[in-house]
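Appendix C: a fully annotated inverse folding record. The material below is reproduced so that readers can follow the format used throughout the book. The structure is listed first as tokens, followed by the designed sequence.
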């Protein structure tokens, strides 16, 4: 923790940052996970085709970051999703995203259409999680 009580987390073996940021920051038990891209730690900058494969990669990257600080998807309180092809990809994105969470345990969520993302990705998702007391 820093003097301000904020921890800055970089996960060993985690996704390669596309800009200057920490994988996550943490203060008072709240964890803010940076939006993840649909590449993988093994293939930085290389994206699979289609919204389903890209959503899976993003969710796996988010799981990697959470696991790196001892958390899981069950700790996610809020998700924000950004889609570049909103009308075309929204239904398939939702189906893939939903599969990662236990029934009845979906975090609050905002999903918006955007004009562009890093690497020309179709999707980016960030999380706010809460560490158990």
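Designed amino acids, in order:
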């Amino acid at each position: 923790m820093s003097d301000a009580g904020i921890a800055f987390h970089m996960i060993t073996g985690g996704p390669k940052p596309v800009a200057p940021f920490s994988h996550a920051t943490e203060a008072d038990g709240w964890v803010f996970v940076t939006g993840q891209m649909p590449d993988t730690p093994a293939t930085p900058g290389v994206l699979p085709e289609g919204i389903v494969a890209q959503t899976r990669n993003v969710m796996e990257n988010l799981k990697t970051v959470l696991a790196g600080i001892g958390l899981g998807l069950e700790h996610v309180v809020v998700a924000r999703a950004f889609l570049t092809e909103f009308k075309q990809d929204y239904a398939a994105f939702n189906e893939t995203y939903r599969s990662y969470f236990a029934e009845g345990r979906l975090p609050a969520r905002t999903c918006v259409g955007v004009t562009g993302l890093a690497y020309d990705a179709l999707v980016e998702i960030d999380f706010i999680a809460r560490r158990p007391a």
